[in-house]
Structure formats: structure tokens, C-alpha cells
Amino acid sequence: MKPTDPEYGRCDHFQPADFVDLAEKHLRENQVSPETWEGMRFAWGGQLTESPKFKSLSMELIRRDGQWVLCAINRNLDPLPPDQLGLRIL
Question: What is the C-alpha separation between 69 and 89, in angstroms, rounded?
Fold first, then answer.
């Protein structure tokens, strides 16, 4: 595989590109017009099973200047509570 291949560098675990895809899918399924996405914020949280140290991961995403920007990523020593798992609109 070469660095120019679309799958180059992809990991098997949930990552920022997956978060963007999930947020856009949610917006499209709810018929939110792309023209209104500016300033929208999302959070995503999940439990980690393969890390010996970290037990969960949380990320935040914002739509700024027509692009999705990952504005927070936190690896946590403790699992997340159920209400912080999955996709959430902030």
C-alpha cells in the first residue's frame, strides 16, 4: 500500500474520520441541510478494550468554516458512564 492509497494509515478502531462520517450521517438522516451545519458541535464516547492503561475515549467535533474540526480528544483512565457513550449533539 502506498501513502496515496485512500486506506493508507487507517486503523481498525474508531477514529476522527469515522466520527465525521457518523455526524454527517446523523444530519442527513434527520434532513438537516448542509447549509445549516456551520457551528454544529458533536461529542462521541466509547469504551476501550485493547489498551492496558486507558479505559475510554471521548472526542468533540465542530463545524467551522465549512470543515469539520476535531476540537477535543481525551483518553480516560476510567470507563465512561452510559450517558456519555455514542454520538451526542452538544
Answer: 15
Domain ranges of the chain: 16-89
In three-state secondary structure terms, 25 is helix
pTM, two decimal places: 0.81
> What is the H or E stretch that residue 29 is in?
helix 16-29
CB atoms within 10 A of CB 61: 23
Q: What is the pLDDT of residues 17-42, one digit of tens each?
A: 899 999 999 999 999 999 999 999 99
Label residue 82 left, alpha or beta by phi (over 0 means left) and psi (-120 to 50 means alpha). alpha
Strands of the 41-47 sheet, one edge to the other = 67-76, 56-64, 41-47, 86-89
